Amino acid sequence: MQAPLPKSYTNYLGRRLFRFLLTVQGLVAFALITLGVILTKWRTAQNVTLPQVFREIRRSGLNLIPMFLFMSTALGLMVIGQAVSRLSQVGAVSSFLGPIMVAVVVREIGPLLTAMLVLSRSGTANVIELGTARALGEVEALETLSVDPVHFLVMPRVIGMALGVFGLTIYFIAGALLSGYLWAFLQNVPLRPGDYFQQLADGLSWIDFAILVAKSCLFGIVIAVITCYHGLAQPLYLEDISRATIRAVVQSIIACVALDALFLFIYLTV
Amino acid sequence: METASATPAPPVIEMSGVVVGSAPDLDRAVLEGVNWTVRAGEYWVLAGMHASGKNDLISLLSGLTPPLEGVYRLFGRQMSLYGDELAAERLRLGTVFEHGQLLQQLTIKENVALPLRYHRNVPWQEIEQRVGAMLESTELLPYADAMPGRLPRHWQKRAGLARALMLEPEVLLVDKPLAGLDPRQAAWWLNFLGQWFAGRGSPRDRRVTLVVTAEDLRPWRHAPCHFALLKEKQFLVLGHRPNFDEQQDSLVGELLAPERPG
Questions:
Q1: Residues of the domain holding A239
Q2: What is the mean pLDDT of residues A34-45?
Q3: How close does chain B come to A235, measured CA to CA in Å?
Q4: Is the residue at A58 inside a domain?
Q5: What's B218's DSSP letter?
Q6: CA–CA separation, A158 and A168 (whole Å)
Q7: Could you tell me which residues of chain B have a Cβ less than 8 Å from any Cβ in chain A?
């Protein structure tokens, strides 16, 4: 009986699978180490780590607000523009705009797009900063000072990015919902603001809020862990940093999308 | 009856049968069979050519890499890789890297203050005062708010020295302090290290045990040091203030040569 694939393909697939499993193992181990450090050293040297956490919240949250203002306005336009053009064909524009915004913006696109934008802006900076620190021996310098690199470099990024992504997601969704109404108004949709917000309120339930909080915080944690892992966890030379950044971005996107699918499954089963 | 003054100082660094691995490739031995003891209050110069294992030995001494074989004890305790269990011993040891290895995201002042802020729960005013005094003694005060990347390498190296001294370590490891420095800078380093060795640099007048590496023995020739050579994977102790003119080893001649290619 002939094998379903030539040997070269099976070897290739085997190698890829093995590498994938090693990466998953490394990421899980790194995440557990980080969790252990957060739990055991949260109170250690807070005068040093808390400013780092605030710096990270500023970098992964507050500094991105102007960009998110633009993006949320654009998202509101895109969703409402498409919805109005389709719904007007069946004469159901005014009664479905709210539910569509809840399903598309609040449950799916809002948190995921926020995570992707934070990844592109702050996640990549994480890999480059930590990769450079690793390549230039700064991590070894920290170790000789008895400063735990995970405590000093990773913990603030994980906490700061989780809070930053959460805050930005709320801001992004609120902006998209408001701009959505603005675009609907400009397209002469016969819908009063009170009716629009009533539709939004009717479309939301406690599970939406719970999933939104969990999802956005987890996106931040996943992005921080993956980018810190690729910048810090392995010996790097300067020329490796660009490759490490690419790997971190690809793996972060895959992890966030997989996580989003998992939350969709939870939402559908609850 | 032996007087107290005749009692030898306790060993701070002890190595027996240590095999030192190369930092980038730990399985490759760069030094073998190192048997060496450093006692409190000694000043050691470890000399060797480029790639003779000086950097790798400093990495091992500071606990960044484990010995491939043998036993390394710091203050009487067997050293393991970086971990919390030996944090107390590690804080008694300071390391100055060849290029300073400062954190590029922090200013010079923040770099120097970091060990104090991280390990000592002292008021901010006291940290400011102690960091200011250290920056002044290392002539770094004008660059306190500069980012490390904006400064020449020799100032970065000085900032690395200031950072390592902030916790007033009992043992200071300095990797190639004079490499690439002009004569004025080199004289400053020799004088500064000499002051700390003599107990005049520390605010509490405490003597520091020094271990430095060098590729050129000329500046250290008349210093009150113990000398060792790193040659062909061997660690050769020359002793305290050896007579260099009587040394048979050709490497000593090379390290003392007034002109070297490049």
A1: 9-269
A2: 93
A3: 9
A4: yes
A5: G
A6: 15
A7: 24, 59, 62-64, 82, 84, 87, 90-91, 93-95, 97, 99, 101-105, 114-115, 117-119, 160, 163-164
Alpha helices in chain A (DSSP H): 7-41, 46-60, 65-90, 93-101, 110-118, 124-135, 138-144, 149, 155-186, 193-203, 206-232, 241-269
State how far the Cα of A161 lies from the Cα of A123, in Å rounded to an integer: 9
Interface test with B, best of A59, A145, A153, A154 (most B CBs within 10 A): A145
Buried b (16+ CB within 10 A) or exposed e, B215-253: bbbebbeebebbbbbbbeeebebbeeeeebeebeeebbe
Q: In whole angstroms, what is the distance from residue B141 CA to residue A148 CA?
A: 28
* Superfamily designation of domain B9-92+170-178+204-255: P-loop containing nucleotide triphosphate hydrolases (3.40.50.300)
Question: Is residue B150 scored above 60 in pLDDT?
Answer: yes
φ/ψ of B18, rounded to 5, equals -80, 135
Q: What ipTM, to 2 d.p.?
A: 0.87
DSSP track, A202-262? HH--HHHHHHHHHHHHHHHHHHHHHHHHHHHSS---GGGHHHHHHHHHHHHHHHHHHHHHH
pLDDT, tens only, B50-97: 888 999 999 999 988 889 999 999 988 887 665 667 777 888 999 999
Q: Which chain B residues are Cβ-neighbours of A133 within 8 angstroms?
A: 103-105
How many CB pairs below 8 Å do chains A and B form together?
62
Cβ contacts (< 8 Å) between A138 and chain B: which residues? 101-104
- Asked if residue A258 is part of any domain, the answer here is yes
pLDDT tens figures, A140-173: 999 999 999 999 999 999 999 999 999 999 999 9
In tens, the pLDDT along A186-235 reads: 888 888 889 989 999 998 889 999 999 999 999 999 999 999 999 998 77
At A2 the pLDDT is 64
Q: CA-based diameter of chain B, in Å?
A: 60
Contact B62 A133 (CB under 8 A): no
* Cβ neighbour number for residue A40 with a 10 Å cutoff: 12
Closest CA to A233 of A251, A217, A219, A258: A251
Best of A146, A150, A157, A241 to disrupt the B interface by mutation (most B CBs within 10 Å)? A146
Model confidence band, residue B4 (pLDDT cutoffs 50, 70, 90): very low
**Is the whole model's pTM more than 0.90, yes or no?**
no
Domain count, chain A: 1
Higher pLDDT, B231 or B257: B231
Tokens of residue B171, six digits: 């043992």
A2 is a domain residue: no
Q: Beta B43-48 vs B209-214: how paired, if at all?
A: parallel
Pairing of the two strands B43-48 and B226-231: parallel
Q: Report yes or no on A150 lying in a domain.
A: yes
Q: Tokens in use for B245?
A: 């003119």
Looking at residue B68, what DSSP letter applies? S
Q: Which residues, listed in sequence order, are joined to residue B214 by a DSSP beta bridge?
A: B47
